[in-house]
Design goal:
mainly alpha, 54% helix, rod-shaped
C-alpha cells in the first residue's frame, strides 16, 4: 500500500508540475499578446466610399507657388508651414496671429530692430524661442512676403 501511495504522490507531483508549466506559459502568452489590426475589406473599384487614395491637393495659384519657393529657400530651415516648432515657431495661421501685415513686414525684414524697439509681441516671441534672433531678410520685397503668406494660408494657415 505504501508503494501505491508513493506512486500516486509522484504522479500527483508530475501533474502539478505540468499544470504549473502550462499556467506560466499561458500567462506569458497573455502578457505578450498584441491584437492584430483588423484587415479591411478590399475596396471594389467604382463603389462609392471605397476610394483608397486621398484627393490630390488643390493646385497653388502662381503667387502661392512663388511663395512656396520663397518659403522653402528662406524660411523652411527654421520654420514649418504647419504647427511644428523647428528652431522658430510653426507658421500655420501667422497671418491671424501677428498684429498686422505691416508688423510682419518689419519683423521679417529685421526682427532684431523690432525687438530692440520694445515691441511687446516681438519680445514675447523672442523670449519664447530662447532669445534666438530670427535672421533678417531685408532683400525680400513686401510682395515676396505676401506670396509666402499666401502659400502658408493655402497650407491651412
Amino acid at each position: 500500500m505504501e508503494e501505491t501511495i508513493k506512486k500516486l504522490q509522484i504522479a500527483l507531483g508530475v501533474l502539478l508540475f505540468a499544470l504549473l508549466v502550462v499556467f506560466i506559459t499561458g500567462a506569458a502568452l497573455i502578457i505578450s499578446y498584441k491584437p492584430e489590426a483588423p484587415v479591411a475589406a478590399k475596396p471594389t473599384p467604382g463603389t462609392p466610399g471605397t476610394e483608397t487614395t486621398a484627393p490630390a491637393p488643390a493646385a497653388l495659384d502662381p503667387v502661392a507657388q512663388k511663395g512656396e519657393s520663397l518659403f522653402k529657400n528662406n524660411c523652411a530651415a527654421c520654420h514649418s508651414a504647419g504647427d511644428d516648432v523647428v528652431v522658430g515657431p510653426g507658421l500655420k495661421g501667422i497671418s491671424k496671429r501677428a498684429p498686422s501685415k505691416d508688423w510682419l513686414y518689419k519683423w521679417i525684414h529685421n526682427s532684431s530692430a523690432v525687438v530692440a524697439s520694445g515691441d511687446a509681441y516681438g519680445n514675447q516671441i523672442f523670449n519664447k524661442f530662447n532669445k534666438i534672433p530670427m535672421q533678417s531678410f531685408p532683400d525680400l520685397a513686401n510682395e515676396d512676403i505676401d506670396a509666402i503668406l499666401k502659400y502658408l494660408d493655402a497650407q491651412g494657415g
